[in-house]
């Protein structure tokens, strides 16, 4: 669910309630790689939950979180022993500094335009040490998950003050073969008004994704269709990719 909708402080404080750790199979997948890497960049880090967990588990190396939402970074900065950067991949110029770059929570899908993808992947390749790994996932468009994004599948949580908050999604623009635009509506009996946030995500095909990675100087090491490391197929919910910075990449 990671896109740029949780930009303000109130909604950002709810993010981990809507995405609790016990339902984060992606964390279970990525955490062994994070713990094994000396330096990690988490792009679209949100509230910083994964890096918080890594530090708590004893990671002694460099951990850096990057997110464009001020509300998210405010939550992440509750731990001061991690580097936090407000911005996107154009905000800093890292050169061969990270053994692992991760994008979790489908953050990769906020890269809508081809040029956004090229610029971001080039920045990631530059940030990686030679042979470093870029690990991320994007929803498999062949499964058409957006068809389940409707008010019938709303989620409800309690905020830190015990108030009930409901979140529902509604697709606003039908899938055009590439992107889906939709809204998140947040409501609570204790709020004066509802909060609505609109987002657009790209659903990229696996073959096109491979071409973009190759253009950026990265080689796909492995791909999986789900968090249990099952093979990628047309019926897989995810396209989970581990890509390496090619040897000799400048």
Model description:
The protein has two domains: 9-140 and 204-245, Vaccinia Virus protein VP39 (Rossmann fold), CATH 3.40.50; 143-202. The protein is 24% helix and 32% strand. It has helices at residues 9-12, 15-18, 25-36, 49-56, 70-76, 114-127, 206-215, and strands spanning 39-43, 62-67, 83-86, 98-103, 128-139, 155-158, 164-173, 179-187, 195-202, 218-224, 238-245. The strands form two sheets. The chain has a seven-stranded mixed sheet with strand order 3-2-1-4-5-11-10, with helices on both faces. The radius of gyration is 18 Å and the shape is globular. Residues 1-6 have low confidence and may be disordered.
What's the architecture of the largest domain in CATH terms?
Answer: 3-Layer(aba) Sandwich
Mean pLDDT: 90
Number of domains: 2
Sum up the overall morphology in one term: globular
Q: CATH superfamily of the largest domain, please?
A: Vaccinia Virus protein VP39
Rounded to the nearest angstrom, the distance between the terminal CA atoms is 33 Å
Sheet with the most strands: spatial strand order: 3-2-1-4-5-11-10
CATH classification, class level of the largest domain: Alpha Beta
Largest sheet: 7 strands, mixed
Structural class: alpha/beta
Uncertain parts? 1-6
Number of helices: 7
The gyration radius over C-alpha positions equals 18 Å
Order of helices and strands: HHHEHEHEEHEEEEEHEE
């Amino acid at each position: 669910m990671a896109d740029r909708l949780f930009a303000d402080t109130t909604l950002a404080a709810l993010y981990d309630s809507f995405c609790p750790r016990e339902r984060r199979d992606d964390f279970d997948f990525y955490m062994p790689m994070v713990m094994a890497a000396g330096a990690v960049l988490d792009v679209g880090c949100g509230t910083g939950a994964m890096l918080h967990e890594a530090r708590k588990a004893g990671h002694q190396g460099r951990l850096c979180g990057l997110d464009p939402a001020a509300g998210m970074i405010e939550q992440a900065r509750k731990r001061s022993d991690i580097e936090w950067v407000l911005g996107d991949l154009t905000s800093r110029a890292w050169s061969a500094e990270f053994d692992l770059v991760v994008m979790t929570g489908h953050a990769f899908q906020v890269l809508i335009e081809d040029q956004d993808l090229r610029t971001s992947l080039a920045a990631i390749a530059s940030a990686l040490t030679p042979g470093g790994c870029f690990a991320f996932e994007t929803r498999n468009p062949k499964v058409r998950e957006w068809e389940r994004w409707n008010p019938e599948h709303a989620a409800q949580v309690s905020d830190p003050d015990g108030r009930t908050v409901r979140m529902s999604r509604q697709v606003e623009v039908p899938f055009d073969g590439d992107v889906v635009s939709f809204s998140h509506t947040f409501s609570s009996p204790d709020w004066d008004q509802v909060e609505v946030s609109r987002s657009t995500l790209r659903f990229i095909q696996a073959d096109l994704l491979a071409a973009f990675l190759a253009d950026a100087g990265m080689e796909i090491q492995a791909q999986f269709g789900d968090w249990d490391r099952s093979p990628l197929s047309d019926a897989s919910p995810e396209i989970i990719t581990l890509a390496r910075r090619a040897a000799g990449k400048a």
